[in-house]
Each structure stands twice: as structure tokens, then as C-alpha cells.
Amino acid sequence: MIRNRTLASALFTTAALLAVGVAPASARTSAASAAATSCYGGARTLTYHYQAAAKEYGTYTTSSRCTDINLRLLTDEPGVYLDACVVFVDHTTKCNNGDAYTTHGTEWGTVATDVKDGTHFVLRVHAYDTDAQNVTFQIAY
């Protein structure tokens, strides 16, 4: 009897949430996962070759596919990282975030957040240290 009440209660709660437009947590997680997949699914693969000065990639234009500009390394060697920033070329020649770089490894990381669709930018990259000789990486925007 208690199992039937628990099941009935769970079904009633789910139906009530759906009726007012709130998806269950599992559906919200699936939606977030789908958004990330479509964002990263359009990732561009690039290669960085070590040099003393920062290297610029682009000009790129953001789309509705991603709300952020993201980066990850495909080269998976211990101690190899890249520092990156974004320059919004229609507005400035300096990096975002107070002209600061962020360090990136093999996990997706955000270089710029909440970027409007249609924004022109270049990605500015430099080696974290001399271990980053030839590094393949991806950007998603």
C-alpha cells in the first residue's frame, strides 16, 4: 500500500510540474547536455606551434550555437597547457577579462562568457611554458 501511495505521489508531482512548465531534473540535465553537445559539436580544431610572442587565431564570429567561447587541448601530455584570451576586435585591441589570460588543459574551459551572437573576435594564445611546442586544441563558439 505504501509503495502505491509513493508511486502515485511521484506521478502526481511530475504531472503537476509538467503542467506548469517545469521539467523534471532528468529532462533539464538532458537539455543542458544537448546544448553542450551542439556547442562543442561545432568546435574548430587548430594547432599552436611554440613561439615567444602570443599568436592570434581568427577573426571568428560567434553564433547562437554557444553562449560562451570555449577552449580545450586535444594534445594530452603532462604539463602541457595553453594560456588564452579573446579580443573583441570591433571594440578593442586588448584581451577580455582585464587583459588577462586563462590557462587551459584537456577539459573544456571558458575563455569568454555570455558573448552576444554575431560578435567578432580573435583568439590570442601563448604557451604556458616551453613544454607547449606543438599543441592541437579546439575552440567552440
Structural account:
The chain has 141 residues and is an alpha+beta fold. It is built from 3 helices and 8 strands. It has helices spanning 2-19, 25-41, 96-99; strands at 44-49, 55-61, 69-73, 82-87, 102-104, 109-112, 120-127, 134-140. The longest helix is centred in the N-terminal third of the chain and has 18 residues, at 2-19. The termini are far apart. The model has no long low-confidence stretch (mean pLDDT 83).
A few lines on this structure:
With 141 residues, the protein is α+β, with helices and mostly antiparallel strands. Helices cover 28% and strands 33% of the residues.
Largest sheet: 4 strands, antiparallel
Strand content: 25-35%
Question: How many DSSP E strands?
Answer: 8
User: Which bin fits the share of residues in helices?
Assistant: 25-40%
Observed structural traits:
141 residues, alpha+beta, four-stranded antiparallel beta sheet
Helix/strand layout:
Layout: H1 2-19, H2 25-41, E1 44-49, E2 55-61, E3 69-73, E4 82-87, H3 96-99, E5 102-104, E6 109-112, E7 120-127, E8 134-140
Antiparallel strand pairs: 1-8, 2-7, 3-6, 3-8, 4-5, 4-7
